[in-house]
């Protein structure tokens, strides 16, 4: 027979088995919840996709150099897997915690972002306006990357008159921050462009580290020329996005932003050209019409006489037409009066009363027929209800009615005596029986 455990026994057994099987383990994951108790203990949750495990990092297991856990941090923890018996929860008792992989980069990113923000480098009142229609721009980017090609294609398509100066740099690696700083200082010193664009394509967090560099951020902040940050794809965020005067979602987006004024200017010039051409054409047409008008007025005497004759004929035709119209109006009024006379004559009123009488007779006859049909329908419904509620219908469903020898209906066994003759009525006839 299998052993029956109590809840406490099962809980102890599971805890002992788990702790003995796993021992000390290392687990990597993302912190999804961080809570601190009044005693200074951390209660955390680590997750990965659809999996989650609860953790506890007690105060006496931390040192002064231990990291400060935060939600979203990617960490590697070392500890002992155990069972928290009061709730029956599986939990990891943490002894040590370290930031892992991109989590370390993210932590450094957030620390630098907070420090620069505290210093005021991200304040909006420090940002310079971007010229609406710049005449020249500087590109700080790789001379061999696709970013330069894509931006130049966009610029030439939308505003080919824009002057572009390239300040070539390495956009990733150890040398990249220093080169970017030097080119920012060079462009600022030369003052040969109105806007500077710091650009590179997308990549991993490590690839974008040059644009999360403190010296690069401070050089952008100190630059007297407006700076646009165009780093990575739309989802990528870098320190340069916060400190720059404008943050573009992509390098191509920066090119579109810088040429939007030029593109509008080209469109405006095109529209003005069309409008000027249209105004010129309309002006010439108007002058031609004026010339034609004055030319037409310079006629010979015989032509003028002919025009007067045509004018007189036109007036005569209008007079005849007006007289004919007056005659037609009088004829119409006479016809209307004759019609009204016919309508109000005694014979017309007799005919109208005769028509109303026939209409009322037909309406009365239809109402009587509808009333008769309704009465017949109600009688049929009552007959159907009587048939349904009658005893024959009950007998048709297999029931029977029991009578004693006096013909009285028996409704209870208590009303029958042993040996009494009974008569049972069913749907197809009657049955004689004796009570026992």
Could you tell me how far the N terminus lies from the C terminus, measured between alpha carbons in angstroms?
Answer: 58 Å
Structural class: alpha/beta
Strand order of the largest sheet: 1-2-3-5-4
Rough shape?
flat
Would you count the extended β strands for me? 13
How much strand? 15-25%
In short:
By secondary structure, the protein is an alpha/beta fold. The protein is built from ten helices and 13 strands.
What does this structure look like?
The structure is a single chain. With 436 residues, the chain is of the alpha/beta class. Among the domains are: 93 residues, Nucleic acid-binding proteins (OB fold (Dihydrolipoamide Acetyltransferase, E2P), Beta Barrel); 147 residues, Response regulator (Rossmann fold, 3-Layer(aba) Sandwich); 41 residues, no CATH class. 50% of the residues lie in helices and 20% in strands. It has 10 helices and 13 strands. A 5-stranded mixed beta barrel has the order 1-2-3-5-4. Helix 3 packs parallel to helix 7 and helix 4 packs parallel to helix 5. It starts with 6 loop residues before the first helix and ends with a strand. The model has no long low-confidence stretch (mean pLDDT 84).
Keywords:
OB fold (Dihydrolipoamide Acetyltransferase, E2P), 5-stranded mixed β-barrel, single chain, 436 residues, 13 strands, 5-stranded parallel sheet, Rossmann fold
Question: How do the helices and strands line up, and which of them pair or pack?
Answer:
Layout (H helix, E strand, L loop, with lengths): L6 H16 L1 E13 L5 E7 L2 E7 L16 E11 L4 E11 L1 H19 L16 E6 L4 H13 L4 E6 L7 H15 L4 E6 L13 H9 L4 E5 L7 H5 L2 E2 L3 H47 L3 H43 L2 H44 L1 H6 L4 E3 L17 E6 L2 E6 L2
Parallel strand pairs: 3-5, 6-7, 6-8, 8-9, 9-10
Antiparallel strand pairs: 1-2, 1-4, 2-3, 4-5, 11-12, 12-13
């Amino acid at each position: 027979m299998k052993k029956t455990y109590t809840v406490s026994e099962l809980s102890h057994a599971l805890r002992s088995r788990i702790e003995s099987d796993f021992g000390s383990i290392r687990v990597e994951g993302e912190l999804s919840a961080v809570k601190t108790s009044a005693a200074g203990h951390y209660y955390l949750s680590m997750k990965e996709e659809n999996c989650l495990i609860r953790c506890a990092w007690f105060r006496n297991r931390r040192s002064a150099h231990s990291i400060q856990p935060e939600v979203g941090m990617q960490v590697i923890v070392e500890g002992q897997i155990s069972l928290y018996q009061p709730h029956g929860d599986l939990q990891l008792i943490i002894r040590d915690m370290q930031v892992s992989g991109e989590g370390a980069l993210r932590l450094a990113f957030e620390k630098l972002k907070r420090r620069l923000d505290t210093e005021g480098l991200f304040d909006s009142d420090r940002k310079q306006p971007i010229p609406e229609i710049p005449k020249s721009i500087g590109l700080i980017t790789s001379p061999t990357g696709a970013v330069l090609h894509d931006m130049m294609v966009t610029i030439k398509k939308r505003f080919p008159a824009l002057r572009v100066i390239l300040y070539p740099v390495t956009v990733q690696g150890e040398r990249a921050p220093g080169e970017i700083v030097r080119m920012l200082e060079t462009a600022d010193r030369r003052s040969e462009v109105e806007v500077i664009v710091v650009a590179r394509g997308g990549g991993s967090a490590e690839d974008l580290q040059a644009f999360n560099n403190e010296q690069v951020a401070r050089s952008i902040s100190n630059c007297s020329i407006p700076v646009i940050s165009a780093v990575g794809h739309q989802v990528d965020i870098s320190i340069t996005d916060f400190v720059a005067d404008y943050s573009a979602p992509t390098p191509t987006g920066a090119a579109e932003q810088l040429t939007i004024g030029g593109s509008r200017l080209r469109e405006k010039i095109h529209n003005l050209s069309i409008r000027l051409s249209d105004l010129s054409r309309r002006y010439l047409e108007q002058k031609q019409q004026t010339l034609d008008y004055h030319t037409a007025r310079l006629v010979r005497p015989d032509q003028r006489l002919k025009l007067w004759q045509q004018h007189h004929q036109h007036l005569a035709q209008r007079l005849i037409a007006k007289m004919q119209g007056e005659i037609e109006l009088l004829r119409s009024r006479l016809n209307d009066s004759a019609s009204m006379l016919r309508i109000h004559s005694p014979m017309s009123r007799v005919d109208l009363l005769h028509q109303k009488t026939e209409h009322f007779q037909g309406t009365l006859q239809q109402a009587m027929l509808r009333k008769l049909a309704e009465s017949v329908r109600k009688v049929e419904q009552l007959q159907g209800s009587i048939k349904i509620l009658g005893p024959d219908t009950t007998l048709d469903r297999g029931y029977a009615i029991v009578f004693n020898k006096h013909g009285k209906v028996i409704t209870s066994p208590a009303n029958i005596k042993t040996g009494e003759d009974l008569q049972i009525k069913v749907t197809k006839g009657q049955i004689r029986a004796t009570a026992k």
